[in-house]
Amino acid sequence: MRLLIVSNRLPLNGVQQNGKLIFEQSAGGLVSGLSAYLDSLKSTSAQDIEYIWIGWPGITVPDKMQPEVKSVLSDLCASPVFLSEEAMDKFYLGFCNKIIWPLFHYFPTYTVYDKDYWFQYQDVNKIFRDAVLEVIKPGDIIWVHDYHLMLLPSLLREKLPHTPIGFFLHIPFPSYELYRLLPAAWGSEILHGLLGANLIGFHTQEYAQYFLRSTLRILGHEHKLGQILSQDHAVKVDAFPMGIDFQRYHSIPMGSEFGHNLKELEQLLHGFKAILSVDRLDYSKGIGNRLQGYKLFLETNPQWCEQVVLLMIVVPSRVGVEHYQQMKRQIDELVGEINGRFGTLNWTPIIYQYKHLPLDSLLAMYRQSDVALITPLRDGMNLIAKEYVAARTDQTGVLILSEMAGAAKELGEALIINPNNLEAISGALQQALAMPETEQKKRNQVMQHRLKGYDVVRWSGDFIQELMQVQKDQFFTLPLDQHKQALLTAFHQADKRLLLLDYDGTLVPFTNNPDQAKPDQELLDLLKDLAKAGTEVVIISGRDRGILETWLGFLNITLVGEHGAWLKRRGEQWSLSKPLVNSWKRQLMPMLEMYTDRLPGSFIEEKEFSLAWHFRQANSELSAACARELMDELVAFTSNVDIHILQGNKVIEVRNSEVTKGSTGLSLALKQDYDFILAIGDDTTDEDLFAILALEHSWPGVLAPKKFTIRVGTDKSQASYFLPNYVKVRKVLQELADME
Predict the structure, then answer these.
(1) Distance between CA atoms of 340 and 349, rounded to whole angstroms?
(2) pLDDT exceeding 70 applies to what percent of the chain?
(3) This model's pTM is above 0.85
(4) Cα dist. 111→146, 151, 178, 207, 284 in Å?
């Protein structure tokens, strides 16, 4: 088994040196985290997993050098995606960092809705799809990472319908009210893109719930315990809080560089309490609030002046984005103001560095700092908070952490604050600096135990294991694609064939208004071709007979209306399948009308022997609640009445219990000695038909025909096979028609 990791950047960064292109290890939480997992795979003989990392190599590679770069990176288990400077500018600096990043981090006023950025985002995701298809092999697993590639899962699903695909978002997913600020077409396509995965992971349950709510409100997809059933696969949405390589930060590094850095810090900070602030340059990190909170702390706690130092490390990031340049100037000015106001000849309140720190230097700062001040305004996880706690080998030190960081859900023993409250930051600093060592150790022991137990290797392993389980469990029935030849052969060899076909969702797509689902010429021609000598075609639908007669009555096929109440055989007139009553309709109509008034967009479809309450056009969230209430009331009200209540696809139907597709279908099947029967449907009403056709004793005294039952969609079904949508159904039926 091979694991294909797909991310915007490779773990290797290309640089030009003396006219040659060389590759260095790149930094970042994703790279360091997944590298630890991949290293664990190499050292664990119990797991037989190879991997390839697919991504951009960090530099524009000329066409003539691309074959050489591919060869070099292949030896390093990497496969490059080549992008032009213009593509990266509009894709990365444009759509990713001027649209998705600010919006998903709750800075909507920073968002630039440029359609050229969107078009480039689409194009780059397609380039990544092609790069994956170039290296994919049977049996591979695909794990796509982060907001740069949110369209990729669906693009891959179209080409690789049976491949396990996982996606993990490393930043927050915003609430629906923010997500809906994206242009509707963009927002819908991104959600569709993500739903191409089998498993979608987030850092917290909160982010997962925000995603599920957006899919419900925008796409109308409901979920059951975090599982969404799309038409061609199941999607599970869950939280997987990313861990760190605990031992990497908790153990003593090899070599002299760490010891040298630690000694320098001891000398620099001698006699002072040290507060550590480490972050990338980003407006989401709350660096300005942090400095203002520190300033307030010095104002309200003068006894700590000349006793405490803020070590502030800001790592350069996205220097080409205007908001970052502006923020850099603001930080510089604020640091200068605080140092100028409070500093003395013997004391500088803030020691400020604007640079990237190697691990040895960073680890020395973790070990030497009494307090870590981590106050993002919004953050997916924030691994720095976890790294600081893990690095405290003597279990002292105090973590002050923003409640807006995903890590706050796991590190509850830290001092949790609201980063927008400067008084809270100041108060937390005072509490942290005065906290007794016994209390520090008590808190850190609990957090270290938690971080050690759920480290990055466990996080990665859990995600992959869950992905494989979802892939294994998702198909309640078998994909027809893998067994279609048996269907074609049985059809060709049969003398008398019966096709029992549902209409809406099976032969035509669902529409907001049922009257808009009129058959197109392609479908009419297909039904004509199927209804030849030796094959009886039956449309068995919940539609009323008037609509069926208007749309299909001129064809040489059998029509069944209202799930079996009405029947029209080829060349005959409509007739009731059995005596039925409909006096119950006038008693239930007021109840349905009341819910129609309560839910804008819903409407009632009245048929002769049934009622249908449709809510496809209604607000998805409200309709789900109303549908549950209506179902409960109908069940309670009709407990002593011989009618059946059934919830289908965005519809609740009430009909006579004596009539089902199952009994009607069996009755038709027993009229002649058919040696081939095919039943296709997409809804709960079709399950009766699938179930009764599966019973061998339904054919007493005669040889049972070869039967094929197909569910449209991936819902749990009693059908033998499934097809993803009506397009695939038509394609299969056309293949049958062409065999005539």
Answers:
(1) 9
(2) 96
(3) no
(4) 18, 19, 11, 20, 13
Question: 317 by DSSP, 3-state: which?
Answer: coil
Under DSSP, the state recorded for 172 is P
Q: Which amino acid appears at position 316 of this protein?
A: P
Extended strands (E) in 215-267: 227-229, 234-239
Joined together, the tokens standing for residue 312 give 């502030």
Residue 371 has pLDDT above 90, yes or no: yes
Bridging pattern class, strands 558-561 and 535-540: parallel
Residue 331 CA to residue 312 CA, distance in Å, equals: 11
Q: What is the DSSP string of 89-138?
A: IIIIIIIIIIIIHHHHTT-GGG----HHHHHHHHHHHHHHHHHHHHH--T
Using a 10 angstrom Cβ sphere, with 0-12 exposed, 13-18 middle and 19 or more buried, the burial of residue 642 is exposed
| Residues with active-site annotation | 502
Q: What is the C-alpha to C-alpha distance for residues 349 and 351, in angstroms, rounded to an integer?
A: 7
Nearest to 401 by CA among 387, 391, 411: 411
Q: Quick one: pLDDT at residue 548?
A: 94
φ and ψ of 79, to 5 deg: -130, 115
Q: Which residues of 21-58 are buried (b: 16+ CB within 10 A; e: fewer)?
A: bebeebebbbbbbbbbbbebbeeeeeeeeebbbbbbbb
Residue from 35, 13, 34 nearest 24 by CA: 13
State the residue for tokens 């060899």.
Answer: 493
Q: What is the pLDDT of residue 697?
A: 61
CA pair distance 81, 735, nearest whole angstrom: 39
Q: CB within 8 A of 233, min separation 6: which ones?
A: 157, 161, 198, 474, 714, 724
Higher pLDDT, 685 or 501: 501
Q: 379 vs 304, 457, 487, 733, CA distance in Å?
A: 30, 22, 53, 51
Closest alpha carbon to 600 in 614, 619, 584, 585: 619
CA distance 340 to 146: 41
Task: Taking the CA atoms of 325, 327, 330 and 336 in sequence, report the sign of the dihedral they define.
Answer: negative
Lowest mean pLDDT among 25-29, 367-371, 699-703: 699-703
Give the pair of three-digit tokens for residue 435.
């906290």
**pLDDT tops 60 at residue 475:** no
Which helix or strand (DSSP H or E) is residue 344 part of? none
Q: Calculate mean pLDDT across residues 263-267.
A: 90
Pair 199, 460: CB distance under 8 Å:
no
Question: From its phi and psi, is residue 224 left (phi > 0), alpha (psi between -120 and 50) or beta?
Answer: beta
Q: Give SS3 for 287.
A: helix
Q: Which two tokens stand for residue 550?
A: 């208007």
- 132 confidence band (pLDDT: 50, 70, 90): very high
3-state secondary structure of 536: strand
Tally: H helices and E strands in the chain: 26, 29
| Among 584, 576, 515, 579, residue whose Cα is nearest residue 543 | 515
Per-residue pLDDT reduced to its tens digit, 557-571: 999 999 889 999 988
The two three-digit tokens of residue 629, written as one number: 């209430």
